[in-house]
Design a protein that fits this description.
Blueprint lengths: L1 H4 L6 H4 L1 H15 L2 H4 L5 E3 L6 H14 L21 E4 L5 H11 L4 E2 L14 H4 L6 H15 L5
Parallel strand pairs: 1-2, 2-3
């Protein structure tokens, strides 16, 4: 049972469980063809997209090397990693290096600021964005509000 696997020290149900749930949900949306059927669907993934952005390249190989685990009736229009450009990711990933890596995987245009407010999980949810030296000021401004404003059809 999953609860037993998360038992023990480290609050694993939150520490790894919540990002894992996000990863699973996004993977289902991709592999079930949801983004092909609904190309205008807007999804904002919590937890920086979970583990998917870091391990997305594995998704491109899944049905090639394990076809028995894939439904032959679902024909994706593109490689699974290409669907990451149809997903927005929150920035609740804690460090400048994590932001740098997420940008490298999905592009700064797909990231919006995230926090766990009112929960005290991240007390300074923008500090790691400001501290990320690999981002330009324009990219930081996009992540901190302009991308979300565009996504929701608002002016920034």
């Amino acid at each position: 049972e999953l609860a037993k696997r998360f038992a023990g020290n480290g609050w694993l149900s939150n520490t790894i469980g919540n990002p894992l749930s996000t990863t699973i949900a996004l993977s289902h949306l991709i592999f079930e063809g949801t983004f092909d059927r609904f190309p205008g669907l807007k999804v904002i993934a919590a937890h920086g997209g979970g583990y998917l952005p870091s391990y997305a390249d594995r998704s491109d190989h899944a049905c090639l090397v394990g076809p028995k685990g894939c439904n032959p009736e679902i024909k994706l229009k593109k490689k699974p990693t290409e669907y990451l450009k149809q997903i927005w990711f929150d920035s609740l990933i804690f460090t400048p290096e994590a932001i740098r890596h997420l940008v490298a995987q999905v592009g700064s245009s797909q990231i919006v600021v995230g926090s766990d407010y009112p929960y005290p999980w991240e007390m300074a949810p923008v500090d790691h964005i400001f501290a990320c030296t690999s981002l330009s000021d324009e990219e930081k401004a996009d992540i901190l509000g302009r991308t979300a404003a565009k996504l929701f059809g608002m002016s920034a």
